[in-house]
Amino acid sequence: MPRFTLFALTLTCLSISSTLVSARPSSYAVWAADSAIKRGQGNGLDSSGKASVSYEHGELQWGLRLLFERTGNQTYYNYIQKGAENIVFPNGTVHGNYKLSDFSLDPVRTGPTFLYLLSKTGETKYRTAADTFRTQLNGHPRTAQGQFWHKLRYPNQGWLDGIYMGDVFYAQYTKDLQPTNASAWADINNQFNLMFQNTLQNSTVPNSAGLLYHGYDFSKTTVWASADRGHSPEVWDRALGWFMMALVDVLDIIGPTPPAAQQQLQTSLLQILRTLAPRVKAAADKDSGVWWLVISQPGRSENYFESSGSAMFVYSLLKAVRRGYVSDSDGSIVAAMKKAYEYMANNWVVANSDGTMGWTNTVQVGSLDGAGDFNYYVGVPTDLNDLKGLAAFLLASLEYETLS
Length: 404
Description:
Blueprint: H1 3-22, H2 28-38, H3 55-71, H4 74-85, H5 111-121, H6 124-139, E1 157-159, H7 160-177, H8 182-199, E2 215-217, H9 237-254, H10 260-283, H11 307-322, H12 332-347, E3 349-351, E4 357-359, E5 362-363, H13 374-379, E6 382-383, H14 387-403
Antiparallel strand pairs: 1-2, 3-4, 5-6
């Protein structure tokens, strides 16, 4: 083959490859969901094919449910159902890595999937599975104030993460199966309020944004506990993101005109959300529009813009405005969230040659198992296609695409 012909062919191939890689569907929500499904993510199995009761899967399934309701594409419903069947035996036993005796709130995040499928199918196995988690909450260890411990192995510690993991299910279960259970509604209200009160930044601390620390130790005995309320040292973006999503999701569950037993919860959640929403907006980086991994240390060396928390904030604040939970009379919240979303789409979305979407810059984990300080958070690696971030981007995309 002549050299110039080979050169032209190479250029043509590169051009085709570039076109494939840069091709982006009109709906990023669909793209994110289809990509996760193609990779087999969030299907109730771990990487070795064993049953896994995972909060990440519950988060994705929540997004797939919303996408199914919007598009009517049965693929999404079927994937949700298959994911549940992988962790629930026909008799309703939740199996795999789940142990009630661990008293961890994390696996409870799959509970809304069971309740959703129960409402769709009426199959008793989903009621039995949901009852398993409700039984766990009945005996779950608490602080003296009544806050659920995040896990049995973290005595007296409440984490923002746990509100999303446990209380979205708690609210959905109560709404669906025990709507007049006033003590349950009061308990859910208490969970949110205690977390808010014990983790809220004081205005006098350095770099205070009036946001929420990652967690607190009511006993004040762990290494990171502050002397006043036992709170942890930093505001971690994803922990706050979990809490913000829980606020809007539980408000959706109870509805705009709840019966008397749920009205105090609605009042509390609206008050908390209306307090935090403008502060979350204000805490975004002014140039990029997105949020630092450690929000309480903006611009510090080794800190970086993190994708899962940013996506959670966009989802929460756009939904808050759309539902009327938060006023945005001047349009500034929506404008800020659009700016953040467009940064995410332009910087953290990767178009793969196989047509799937890649997602970058999601920190692998954030725990209060150790020092809980700045160096800990920035020392945790980021992952490609981490489901905690990808599912959050799916949710953010659903809200963003509602704007157009």
